[in-house]
Amino acid sequence: MLEVIDLRTSLFGPVSLSVAAGECVAIMGASGSGKSLFLRALADLDPNEGRVLLGDEDRDAMPADRWRRKVAMVPAESGWWSDRVADHFEPGAVAGVLLEAFGLPDAMAWEVSRLSSGERHRLALARALALKPAAILLDEPTATLDEAATAQVEAVLRDELARGVPVVLVTHDPAQAKRMGSRLLTMERGRLHARAEARA
Ligand SMILES: Nc1ncnc2c1ncn2[C@@H]1O[C@H](COP(=O)(O)OP(=O)(O)OP(=O)(O)O)[C@@H](O)[C@H]1O
């Protein structure tokens, strides 16, 4: 369970939200409504106030880097700090399995400079999931992807949900929100509301 209590910055909130183990909450909302800022605050990437709990662990009781490893945010545009894709992954079999699932089995040997935007996005997702986070925050994870690659990403996310990971998914795609979200919320001027479909 990921529990958010009165999370806020000067630019959004307060927002309170509970995401159960294995639940995907899909958040839509107009451009500039505060969706990315909310995810960044949840991951403790920007200064913020409020409480965030993961199971019985309190974010404020652990160093920020430990929290960010547990609660992985994959932003809309990922950062790369080395020339080779492989340098962004810890050694081990988990990454290989993910790259297969994303249809990029050979990507470990590639240079970052050759990656298409869709490849970058899937590899950023694989990089985050390879660390086996306890909660996942996704900012438009398939915005750059075609239908087949979108299906691959959604299949991997379903596996994460099946193993009990709570997922917060920001998307501009209503069909994806319905496919993946067990609850649909909308961000409006920095506040979260239930969407009409979710109340029906
Ligand atoms: N450092 C900042 N200072 C002032 N305003 C900011 C800052 N960072 C973001 N904003 C503003 O806060 C608002 C919310 O930004 P945010 O990135 O969360 O939007 P979003 O809902 O994710 O939009 P999109 O769907 O376009 O990605 C925007 O109007 C943005 O310009």
TrEMBL record:
SMART domains, sorted: AAA
Keywords: ATP-binding, Nucleotide-binding
Residues annotated as domain ABC transporter: 2-200
Molecular function GO terms recorded: ATP binding; ATP hydrolysis activity
InterPro entries: AAA+_ATPase, ABC_transporter-like_ATP-bd, P-loop_NTPase
The keyword ATP-binding appears for this protein: yes
Keyword NADP annotated: no
Gene3D superfamilies per record: P-loop containing nucleotide triphosphate hydrolases (3.40.50.300)
Coiled coil: none
SUPFAM superfamilies the UniProt entry points to: P-loop containing nucleoside triphosphate hydrolases
Name of this chain's protein: ATP-binding cassette domain-containing protein
Originating species: Thermohalobaculum xanthum
